[in-house]
Amino acid sequence: MEEIIDIHSHVLPNTDDGVVGIGSSKIVLRIFKEIGITKAILTPHYIENSIYSKNKTQNEETFKETKQELKKDNVQIKLYLGNEIFINDNVVDLLEKEEICTLADSQYVLLELPMGNFINVTKILCELNAKHYIPVIAHIERYPYFWENYSLVNQLLEYGCLFQSNVGSLSGKYGNQAKQFVKYLLKKNLITFIGSDVHTVNGARNLKSAYKKLHRFVGDEKFKELTYTNPKKILDKEPIEFDIKYLKAVM
């Protein structure tokens, strides 16, 4: 399989609802290597005023310890730190104070939206735009309100949002509606990144077949763009250009 860069994972141990224990982290990262993931951004949840609210300093300490343990066992994979940030009114302030992380110290910010109801995020996105952050919406295909009203996606495109999809969605991991929606978004070239969003060892074991399914669906060129070329632009701190007029027209 082609070289893959994963921009969304919950492999930093004992940090959120993801992997528990450094031993499990090692297993997941070995599986990553086996399927071609050579670089990965670890993105623990940040949900303000919840049990998932460890700050950047705390996560950096766990990140440092994790890399040291991997080095001892010769697990050779390049790791970066980020957050999956549940969108809130204080996002920009938290970023500016370095309480939370962008993706791999870039201008890209991974944001999670509420699963229940669509909320107006215009003010938050405007603030991010003003500070030159690039919003990346996590697993865009999983939000039910987009299934019911595709045009809502245009509201995010207006503010330069890029969309990340979970590789397991195409295999039906999140249900048939998410599967059909991600197929639609892929066909319309509205997905910029594919991530694993892996939380467990068992989840990692299903990734190989999920990536193969994605490869068959989109073909060689698009697969590389979604899983390597665009993610590499995050690591290299480069912008990703797209024609919003074209994207809006195809919705």
Which fold name is given in CATH as the topology?
TIM Barrel
Helix content: 40-55%
- Second CATH tier, the architecture: Alpha-Beta Barrel
CATH class: Alpha Beta
What integer value in Å does the Rg equal?
17 Å
SS-based class: alpha/beta
N-to-C SSE string, H for helix and E for strand: EHEEHEEHEHEHHEHEHHH
Strands, total number: 9
**Mean pLDDT across all residues, rounded?**
94
Strand content: 5-15%
Largest pleated sheet: 6 strands, parallel
Q: Based on CA inertia axes, which overall geometry fits?
A: globular
Number of helical regions: 10
Give start-end ranges of low-pLDDT stretches. Answer: none
- Spatially, the strands of the biggest sheet line up as 3-5-6-7-8-9
Instruction: Calculate the terminal CA-CA distance, rounded to whole Å.
Output: 32 Å
What is the number of domains? 1
- Give me the CATH superfamily: Metal-dependent hydrolases
Give a written overview of the molecule.
43% of the residues lie in helices and 14% in strands. The protein has a single domain, classed as Metal-dependent hydrolases (TIM Barrel), CATH 3.20.20. The model has no long low-confidence stretch (mean pLDDT 94). Strand 1, helix 1 and strand 2 form a beta-alpha-beta unit. With 251 residues, the chain is of the alpha/beta class. The protein contains ten helices and nine strands. 42% of the residues are buried. The strands form two sheets. Strands 3-5-6-7-8-9 form a six-stranded parallel sheet. Strands 1-2-4 form a three-stranded parallel sheet. The radius of gyration is 17 Å and the shape is globular.
